[in-house]
Amino acid sequence: MTSSGGQRTVVDDESVTIERVMEAPRSVVWQAWTDCEHFSRWYGPEGFTLPHCEIDFRVGGRHLWGMRSPDGWEMWTTGVYQEIEELERFTTTEVSSDTEGNPAPGPGMEGPMETLLSVRLEDLDGGRTRMTVRQSGWASSEMGEGAGGGWSQAFEKLAATLEEVA
To answer: Which of 23, 24, 95, 152 has its CA 20 to 30 A from that of 7?
Structure first.
């Protein structure tokens, strides 16, 4: 477990869980996850952009995200929303894909990898939100640690984005 800047990260054999307090109301944090205009502003590690974003936010709906590194390398992810409790939590699959959303090997992978992403939001005093994100199904703890590092960087971008809109 690591903890820094109000964030706590736990990695086990196949999952990474990050808990972080966001200085914004739950409805604003929810929108940051569920609306492409907002999601595109923060998703991905530092220096990465999200030039392609599709979100069909409903149970059974699909997302397709195309992330680009500073040197132009691209990584695509698709998935299907499994559960949604408005403003409280959602669960979606995450699958490495091609640009059309067909499962495909990600960088350094022999085949497509599917994980399960769960996001839970809780109201806190002062208009703040506790965000708990868990991604499970990694092939190794090393992959989970790598994902945790990427999420941590993305959440720094999310915190900065929320400051701008709050």
So the answer is: 95
Domain boundaries, the chain: 2-158
Place of tokens 């640009």: 99
d(Cα 15, Cα 30) in Å, to the nearest integer? 22
| Half-sphere exposure (Cβ direction) of 102: Cα atoms closer than 13 Å | 2
CB-CB neighbours of 118 under 10 Å:
17
On whether the pTM is more than 0.90, the answer is: yes
> pLDDT tens digits for 106-164?
777 776 789 999 999 999 999 999 999 999 998 888 888 989 999 999 999 999 999 98
Q: What are 39-65's pLDDT values in tens digits?
A: 999 999 999 999 999 999 999 999 999
| Cβ atoms < 10 Å from Cβ of 15 | 19
User: Which CATH number, 3.40.50.10240, 3.30.530.20, 3.10.105.10, 3.40.50.300, labels domain 2-158?
Assistant: 3.30.530.20
For residues 99 and 75, the answer to whether their CB atoms sit within 8 Å is no
Cβ–Cβ contacts within 10 Å for residue 165, how many? 11
Q: Are 156 and 4 in contact (CB under 8 A)?
A: no
- Residues listed for the chain: 166
